């Protein structure tokens, strides 16, 4: 679905300080700007905070908008530079293969984002560009390379537009993009099942049955040889079926612990609210969010977010009665 070209001119009411007209002007871009900030920062809460900063800065900086670029491009310039400032201020640098600050992004928040990309140069679909594998690789890039790759290859801005957004030259953008693409070229998303396809539904159903039954052999049989189990924000990572199976037996399912998985979607991938059974009561206690990465009919990543805070964004409660 393509959107009509964004308007360049601000309504006179906005120039005259009409806040309601300004709100209506920027509302169509709110959700895609939040996703942009999430790609840059890896945190849903940080993305929302930076979105609010962006809109406030746009409102306060109306007089500086010269209408040489579209309103959308102007907003992306503010948002991108706010994100870069935040990254510089926090001094965030990757400490492990899975950034500890990475949070799951509910698919429901992706609904309705209009495809603004102008042509085939943009390589990533929306679901691919928020996948945990892509986000993890993206967070390893230096901030400006990260910004260039997202603006060019995900959002489809032209080189000259990216240069204007970042206040740099076209040559600098091209150089940064070449380095960023080189760093991400090993990521292979070609065998990921289509969302809600029969293949995906079959793998997910088999995983739920095995996980809820604490059937380690069945879970291990579904894993690729190089599958990862990670648990942000804890700096723990296990690779390979044997290591993952050992963790499930000795930690996740020790002492007879059993779980119930409530299906949802995060980052364009199958996901679950994870609930721990209490054998003494009919209450299930929230135990974070679990996201699966699929390759063909196998699982290549299990990401277990232990924090219960994201549950609300998925419309999931802190406890369930059975």
From TrEMBL:
Keywords: DNA-binding, Sigma factor, Transcription, Transcription regulation. SUPFAM superfamilies: NTF2-like, Sigma2 domain of RNA polymerase sigma factors, Sigma3 and sigma4 domains of RNA polymerase sigma factors. Residues 25-92 form the RNA polymerase sigma-70 region domain. Residues 132-184 form the RNA polymerase sigma factor 70 region 4 type domain. InterPro entries: ECF_Sigma-70_Domain, NTF2-like_dom_sf, RNA_pol_sigma-70_dom, RNA_pol_sigma-G_actinobac, RNA_pol_sigma70_ECF_CS, RNA_pol_sigma70_r2, RNA_pol_sigma70_r4_t2, RNA_pol_sigma_r2. One of its GO terms (molecular function) is DNA binding. GO terms for biological process: DNA-templated transcription initiation; response to stress. It holds the Pfam family Sigma70_r4_2. Interacts transiently with the RNA polymerase catalytic core formed by RpoA, RpoB, RpoC and RpoZ (2 alpha, 1 beta, 1 beta' and 1 omega subunit) to form the RNA polymerase holoenzyme that can initiate transcription. Belongs to the sigma-70 factor family. ECF subfamily. This is RNA polymerase sigma factor. It comes from Actinophytocola algeriensis.
């Amino acid at each position: 679905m393509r959107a009509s070209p964004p308007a360049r001119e601000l309504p006179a009411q906005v120039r005259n300080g009409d806040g309601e007209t300004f709100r209506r002007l920027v509302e169509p871009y709110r959700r895609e700007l939040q996703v942009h900030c999430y790609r840059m920062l890896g945190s849903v809460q940080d993305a929302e905070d930076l979105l609010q900063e962006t809109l406030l800065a746009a409102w306060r900086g109306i007089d500086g908008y010269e209408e040489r670029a579209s309103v959308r491009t102007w907003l992306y310039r503010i948002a991108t530079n706010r994100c870069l400032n935040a990254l510089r201020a926090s001094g965030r640098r990757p400490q492990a293969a899975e950034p500890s600050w990475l949070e799951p992004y509910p698919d429901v928040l992706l609904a309705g984002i209009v495809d603004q990309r102008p042509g085939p140069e943009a390589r990533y679909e929306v679901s691919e560009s928020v996948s945990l594998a892509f986000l993890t690789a993206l967070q390893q890039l230096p901030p400006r390379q990260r910004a260039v790759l997202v603006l060019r290859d995900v959002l489809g801005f032209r080189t000259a537009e990216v240069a204007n957004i970042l206040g740099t030259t076209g040559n600098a953008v091209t150089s940064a993009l070449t380095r960023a693409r080189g760093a991400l070229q090993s990521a292979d998303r070609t065998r990921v099942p289509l969302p809600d396809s029969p293949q995906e539904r079959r793998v997910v159903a088999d995983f739920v049955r095995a996980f809820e039954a604490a059937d380690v052999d069945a879970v291990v049989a579904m894993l690729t040889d190089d599958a990862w189990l990670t648990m942000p924000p804890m700096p723990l990572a296990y690779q390979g079926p044997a290591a993952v199976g050992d963790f499930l037996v000795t930690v996740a399912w020790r002492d007879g612990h059993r779980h119930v998985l409530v299906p949802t979607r995060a980052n364009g991938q199958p996901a679950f609210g994870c609930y721990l059974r209490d054998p003494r009561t009919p209450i299930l206690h929230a135990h974070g969010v679990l996201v699966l990465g699929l390759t063909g009919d196998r699982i290549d990543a299990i990401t277990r977010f232990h924090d219960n805070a994201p549950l609300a964004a998925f419309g999931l409660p802190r406890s369930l009665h059975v």
